[in-house]
Design a protein that fits this description.
CATH architecture of the largest domain: 3-Layer(aba) Sandwich
Number of domains: 2
Strand content: 15-25%
Radius of gyration: 20 Å
Structural class: alpha/beta
Order of helices and strands: EHEHHEHEEEEHEHEHEHEEHHH
Helix content: 40-55%
Number of helices: 11
Bound molecules: 3-isopropylmalic acid, manganese (II) ion
Largest sheet: 10 strands, mixed
Length: 360
């Protein structure tokens, strides 16, 4: 029997809807070629919807979304909406409600894409950041006193639970084993200052590492990681870190791999519903111009298929993207691709269909 998957599509704001359409082209090309079926339900949530209705993300919509096998998200963010409202009300609400405790962000420079790092090529820039996605500073613990007065006190605490830290570290070891590259897992922390939180991370890391004797472990402080990501990105295979540090270093990662146009990510609950998104945001100024690069969204579709178990189809997307980047697309920046947004989507879908691509 043909396998069938339910995909919740959240096109969102700005250029989100445009890139999601191109991601779906790639998914459909895979479904046709590899004989599975995808059924889409679109949910119109985001800044526009909020402005029209005052509604952000009601619980009954979360309940509907959570019935799907995976979520494909465009971008959330609207210039007329105060920062924080949509981010917390949609993105973080979904991550927490669906317990997507892993944020998986590959940092990979594809051939044909230029990096701002001199002398680094696709051989040197190819690692994955596993960011804890449900705790830390993002848990929202804290409060303030005497707000707006000279005596104001603001406290924002980082919550790190043994369970939360352990499941993330365990996922990272498993991922590193499966990735089978240099089998090296680096813990990114700040044990010299954050002596409670990263003491827990470090002890857990060492304990879990005993179950993975074939994986080499390493540790670096987050500030040093930033330095090495620029100077020696080839040192990294898989990096595991907490929510806040993961947020910061993956933006740096996105830049060294060529920019937001190619940076994809997955919010993963290994036993539940995961959500995939280009990490670049809604880029409102490019909306409707057919110039935004859909590759990040298409690579998110690749992560989506890989996570739901369609790994052959997933690598077909990556191979097609590799070829398009190497042979066709001039520059990954919006407006400089030499192709319109939809033409890039068509090209990748055609390569998938033809089985043309670069082996991965
Ligand atoms: C990301 C984003 C979000 C985060 C924001 C929009 C809340 O920067 O996905 O990295 O900080 O996690
Ligand atoms: Mn971020």
């Amino acid at each position: 029997m043909t396998k069938k998957y339910q995909i919740a599509v959240l096109p969102g704001d700005g250029t989100g809807p445009e890139v999601v359409v191109e991601g779906i082209k790639a998914l459909e090309a895979c479904a046709a070629k590899y004989h599975f079926k995808l059924e889409y339900t679109t949910f119109h949530i985001g800044g526009e919807h909020y402005k029209k209705t005052g509604e952000i993300l009601p619980d009954h919509v979360v309940a509907d979304i959570s019935k799907s096998d995976a979520i494909f998200l465009g971008a959330i963010g609207h210039p007329d909406v105060k920062p924080g409202i949509l981010e917390q009300g949609i993105l973080l609400k979904l991550r927490f409600a669906l317990d997507q405790y892993i944020n998986l962000r590959p940092v990979k420079l594809y051939e044909g894409v230029s990096t701002p790092l001199k002398d680094k090529t696709s051989k040197e820039i190819d690692f994955v950041v596993i960011r804890e996605n449900s705790e830390g500073l993002y848990a929202g613990a804290g409060g303030c006193l005497k707000r707006g007065t000279p005596d104001e006190v603001a406290i924002q605490e980082s919550i790190n639970t043994r369970k939360g830290v352990e499941r993330c570290i365990r996922f990272a070891f498993e991922y590193c084993r499966k990735r089978n590259k240099s089998k090296k897992l680096t813990l990114c922390g700040k044990t010299n200052v954050l002596t409670y939180a990263f003491d827990l991370w470090e002890r857990t890391f060492h304990e879990v590492s005993k179950e993975y004797p074939e994986i080499q472990t390493d540790y670096a402080h987050v500030d040093a990681i930033c330095m090495w990501m620029v100077k020696n990105p080839e040192w990294f295979d898989v990096i595991v870190t907490d929510n806040m540090f993961g947020d910061i270093i993956t933006d740096l990662g996105a830049m060294i791999q060529g920019g937001m146009g190619v940076a994809a990510g997955g919010n993963i609950n290994p036993k539940g519903v995961s959500m995939f998104e280009p990490i670049g945001g809604s880029a409102p100024k490019y909306t409707g111009k057919r110039i935004i690069n859909p590759i990040a969204a298409i690579l998110s579709a690749h992560l989506l298929l890989d996570t739901i178990g369609e790994s052959v189809a997933a690598s077909a997307i990556e191979s097609a993207v590799k070829k398009a980047l190497r042979d066709d697309i001039k520059d990954v920046a919006a407006g400089k691709m030499g192709y319109a947004t939809d033409e890039v989507g068509d090209l990748v879908a055609r390569y998938i269909k033809e089985g043309a691509g670069v082996n991965v």
